[in-house]
Write a structure and sequence with these properties.
The protein is of the alpha/beta class. The protein has 2 domains: 5-18 and 31-167 and 311-371, D-Maltodextrin-Binding Protein, domain 2; 170-309 and 382-423, D-Maltodextrin-Binding Protein, domain 2 (3-Layer(aba) Sandwich). 38% of the residues lie in helices and 18% in strands. It contains 17 helices and 17 strands. The strands form 6 sheets. Strands 2, 3, 4, 6, 16 and 17 form a 6-stranded mixed beta sheet that branches. β14 (296-299) and β15 form a beta hairpin. The longest helix is centred in the middle third of the chain and has 16 residues, at 232-247. The relative contact order is 0.16. The model is unreliable at 1-35 (pLDDT under 50).
Length: 428
């Protein structure tokens, strides 16, 4: 008889406050090489059923009750694997908190958990995530784009997670103000309407440096020794562009929700954000709702493509798991096309599965297409190595210095090089 500890989701969620609580530094010892279940799960029921327990962590929205996505998928997985009699223990841990909560005590953490890929380096360093192998790895690679696989690939070339949705930002715009040709160029849009952009947000400002050939930790984003290349003539040209952009009367700095508020009252016609704002933007723009990949900018007379950071949310497996084969099989199942489609239908989570690219519902979803096109055409994979932690504060401060007037056309070269030095200083 199948046992289900979903019986007290509310109790598990309370327990998870302790499991997903205090912040501690991740261990720094070198991880042991752990490949997750090289052999595929048996397709034939064994003579004897094995009773096992799997602890699963995910966001609260996926496990509100027994009909929510996570318990629904886990029970379907249970039914499809008669060789195991699985008791599931569900606990709440948002993807963005997995890096600190799993590494707090990997031996006590979940067997299977969801995580944001920018935490991958920390998880690997703490030996808190297992490397995929065998037919499971083959299945994951076959069903994901190269950029999504890169988002869960470690510096050793191993794949450490199963992507289930992308994580990036793109462009929302008012279709009554801009044509499809207009939205190809940010400078054209600035001539015709009000453009908001989060210039003081370090997740966004890098897109201009990437457009002009800047790099972070090499072309693949995993070479710590390569450092950050945002200085020199390339960085100076970007800095000059940003100073001029800020002084443009049709440009508005988006901070603390001002861009979305501007869409609502008509004072803004463009917003750069992600899927999390889709519902609010649809409500604000109504029939004039538009979404698209990023435009180009004109730097030194040449059109250069803006490129956002792109990553994923993925399913990981704890290498300390006592039932590794079942845990890996579950992780791959939760990231499968069928599970991703259910995630989309139940919660609007946009899938990464290549098998779903022709699904009619997804093809008709402008937001899903904008995210997919951005990841494919106008993005770079966000570095997940621990050294990336040194990037965020200097980049944010640089945007604020432009807004405050500290950075000018006259000192652009000096300030660009100072930014580059700060980004390459591990002491910051």
């Amino acid at each position: 008889m199948k046992k289900i500890l979903a019986l007290l989701l509310a109790v598990c969620m309370v327990l998870s406050l302790a499991a997903c609580g205090a912040k501690t530094d991740a261990p720094t010892e070198k991880p042991t090489e752990t490949k997750a279940a090289d052999a595929p799960a048996s397709t034939e029921a064994p003579a004897e059923v094995k009773d096992i327990t799997l602890k699963v962590w995910g966001p609260q929205e996926d496990q509100v009750d027994a009909s929510s996505w996570l318990p629904t998928m886990c029970e379907k997985f249970n039914a499809e694997h008669p060789e195991w009699n699985i008791t599931f223990v569900y606990e709440v841990c948002p993807e963005g908190d997995a890096g600190k909560n799993v590494t707090q005590d990997p031996s006590a953490a979940a067997d299977v958990y969801m995580f944001a890929n920018d935490q991958l380096g920390t998880l690997i360093q703490a030996n808190a995530i297992a490397q995929l192998g065998g037919s499971y790895l083959d299945a994951v690679v076959a069903d994901n784009s190269a950029s999504m696989i890169a988002s869960v690939t470690g510096t050793d070339g191993g794949v450490y997670g199963v992507p289930f949705t992308g994580n990036t930002w793109f462009m929302y715009y008012d279709t009554s103000v801009f044509t499809e040709d207009d939205i190809k160029s940010l400078d054209t849009m600035l001539e015709k309407g009000k453009v908001s952009f989060p210039l003081t947000n370090s997740w966004y400002i890098a897109s201009f440096f990437f457009a002009n050939g800047g790099t972070i930790f090499g072309d693949a984003g995993i070479d710590a020794a390569a450092g950050v290349d945002f200085g020199g003539e390339k960085g100076t040209a970007v800095t000059e562009y940003l100073v001029n952009l800020y002084s443009n009367p049709n440009f508005v700095v988006d901070a603390d929700g001002s861009g979305l508020a501007g869409l609502r009252d008509g004072s803004v016609n463009v917003l750069f954000s992600g899927t999390w704002d889709a519902s609010a933007v649809r409500e604000a723009l109504g029939d004039n709702f538009g979404a698209a990949q990023l435009p180009t900018v004109t730097i030194n007379g040449e059109a250069k493509q803006l490129q956002s950071f792109a990553g994923s949310k993925a399913i990981g497996v704890n290498p300390n798991c006592q039932n590794m084969q079942a845990a890996v099989a579950l992780a791959v199942y939760l990231g499968s096309a069928d599970a991703q489609l259910a995630h989309y239908e139940m919660r609007g989570i946009i899938p990464t599965s290549l098998a779903l690219t022709s699904d009619p519902a997804i093809q008709a979803d402008a937001v899903a297409l904008a995210q997919a096109n951005t990841i494919a055409n106008t993005s770079v994979v966000q570095p997940s190595i621990p050294e990336m932690n040194n990037y965020w504060t200097p980049a944010e401060n640089f945007g604020k210095a432009i807004v405050s007037g500290e950075v000018t056309l006259d000192n652009a070269a000096e300030k660009a090089d100072a930014l580059n030095s700060a980004l390459n200083n591990s002491g910051l």
